[in-house]
Design goal:
It contains 15 helices and 21 strands. By secondary structure, it is of the alpha/beta class. Strands 1, 2, 3, 4, 5, 6 and 16 form a 7-stranded mixed sheet that branches. α1 packs parallel to α8 and α3 packs across α4. It is globular and about 90 Å long.
Length: 454
């Protein structure tokens, strides 16, 4: 067995692990990077990149086979950035094998033993397949197999109305597939209900059948695939399971590393360090919180500060955006209205501006969508945006909230006319206009100044 000593051993070459490995090695640390599957992890190979390409290809009018070929094009284009070759050129030792703990500061991967001063668990997550009666008797798809599919599904049944289920429902409908989404609870239940309603109404209007509150009872291979639910049976040609995720921790022998876990991930403190083995960090999907590529990257930055410079750094969530790429897109940063009301009570101001009042929306015939702005003590604490490209439109709020800016920073900015982005400034302006236009004090002051000005 080979033995290597290193400063940092990163397990998992996905969004989080690659951020840590490239940052740490370029700042002078010795880095070993271990990957059991494909370089780039879920986001590149089975997640964000294929799903967003498929959504775009559907809207662009490609057929299913062309769209899946386009998915491969997008992956191949991005892959060199995440490749073993690139990371070796940067100076990392890359091992392609499954990693596990031997003891608190030793990792085994294949025939290599790695003694590490710091260990980063960035192993991501996998589809959680619920223990549904008969599930193993049908050839179901998950995000790991869907993008290898070539023939157009005649009728795709999707179990789960979360972001994966809803995005894939829009995408498949655009190829003319019949689509049924089954959710045991409510679809997009984590989102602002007014915002989710616009997206889900549009999904229904496009012809997708959405069964909410439908408990899945059994699955069988009858006439293709038949799903028995508490609201009746559904028969289709293909089944996609998108019912949530489980962290990839089972192969790590965590107990040998003195690294306890919870149901959702490694048990970490606010600095993403294991609660009992301070040499070990967990980031991204394996850390048990929100699951986004940009969050995994942000986690990477947080722990680099702590690992390389010994600067205490906490991972925060209040400024992390998320987007569901439906039609329209639904973007959220910080607190939803319900969360903000719970936290700030009557000290909260909520501003809502409908997109139809925006001139660019009028020129483009956009009648649906809105921005909802949650303000506490003159600062934004949450924004909900439903609009075409809401994921791009929310960017100024990500800047404002990451830097704890006041709302006046947004109202002072000048946005180009006519753009949808002006809705951001308009919402901020609406917060100040009653203070300016309905104030007796302002009116008196203006009256006095006007009397004395030459
Ligand atoms: C269909 C889908 C669409 C998505 N769309 C978006 C989106 O649009 N925007 C967004 O922000 N997020 C999206 N996500 C979420 C995003 O993909 C994840 O949050 C992100 O990939 C997490 O990064 P990570 O580094 O934690 O894990 P990953 O990227 O999954 O990387 C983990 C890596 O660790 C490896 N590994 C696991 N165990 C071991 C081991 N024992 N030894 C060695 N290697 C190991 C795995 O093979 C994997 O390559 C989507 C997810 C899915 C499934
Ligand atoms: N655009 C994005 O950023 C994006 C896109 C896709 C995924 N993701 C990430 O991946 C994560 C996982 O997505 P997801 O959609 O799989 O999970 P999710 O947990 O967000 O949603 C799963 C849905 O499945 C339902 N469900 C669970 N078990 C069920 C059952 N037995 N029968 C019927 N319904 C059932 C739940 O009620 C829930 O609505 C997301 O939370 C997100 O962090 C992000």
């Amino acid at each position: 067995m080979n033995t290597i000593k290193t400063d940092v051993c990163v397990i998992g070459a996905g969004s989080g692990g690659l951020t840590v490995a490239s940052g740490a090695v370029q700042m002078g640390a010795k880095v070993v990077l271990i990957e059991a599957g494909k370089m780039g992890g879920d986001c590149l190979n089975y997640g964000c990149v294929p799903s967003k390409t498929l959504i775009h290809a559907g809207r662009a009018g490609m057929n299913y086979a062309e769209a899946m070929a386009d998915v491969q094009r997008a992956i191949t284009t991005i892959a060199p950035h995440d490749s073993q070759e690139r990371f070796e050129k940067l100076g990392c030792t890359v091992i392609r094998d499954t990693a596990r703990f031997e003891d608190e500061d030793t990792i085994i991967a294949g025939d290599t033993r790695i003694g590490a001063r710091r260990i980063v668990i960035a192993t991501g997550s996998s589809p959680m397949v619920p223990p549904i009666d008969g599930i193993d008797s049908v050839p179901y798809l998950t995000n790991e197999t869907l993008f290898a599919q070539r023939e157009t599904p005649e009728h795709l049944i999707i179990i789960g109305g979360g972001p994966i289920g809803i995005e894939m429902a829009f995408a498949h409908r655009s190829f003319g597939c019949e689509v049924t989404v089954i959710d045991g609870d409510q679809a997009l239940s984590k989102e602002d209900p007014d915002a989710a309603k616009i997206v889900l109404d549009r999904l229904r209007a496009e012809g997708v059948t959405l069964m909410e509150g439908a408990k899945v009872e059994a699955v069988s291979a009858e006439n293709g695939v038949t799903v028995q639910t508490s609201k009746g049976p559904v028969t289709g040609s293909h089944l996609l399971v998108a019912a949530g995720r489980k962290p990839n921790l089972d192969k790590l022998d965590l107990d040998k590393g003195n690294v306890p876990r919870t149901k959702t991930g490694v048990d970490v403190d606010g600095s993403l360090r294991s609660v009992s083995n301070k040499k070990v960090y967990a980031i991204g999907d394996a850390a048990g919180g929100m699951q986004f590529t940009h969050l995994a990257g942000y986690h990477g930055g947080v722990i680099i500060r702590s690992m390389l410079f010994g600067i205490p750094a906490k991972a925060k969530t209040a400024h992390i955006p998320r987007v569901t790429y439906g039609s329209p897109e639904l973007a959220q940063i910080g607190l939803t209205e319900a969360e903000a009301r719970k936290e700030h009570g009557d000290k909260l101001t909520v501003i809502r501006e409908d997109l139809k009042s925006n001139d660019r929306a009028v020129t483009a015939g956009i009648t649906e969508g809105f921005i909802k702005l949650m303000v506490h003590k003159g600062r934004p604490v949450g924004v909900t945006l439903v609009a075409p490209n809401a994921g791009d439109l929310i960017a100024p709020w990500a800047l404002a909230m990451a830097n704890n800016m006041k709302l006046s920073a947004m109202s002072n900015a000048v946005f180009p006319y006519p753009t949808l982005a002006e809705i951001n400034k308009r919402a901020a302006g609406s917060y100040f206009s009653p203070k300016l236009f309905d104030s007796a004090l302002v009116k008196t002051a203006v009256g006095l100044v006007q009397r004395w000005l030459p």
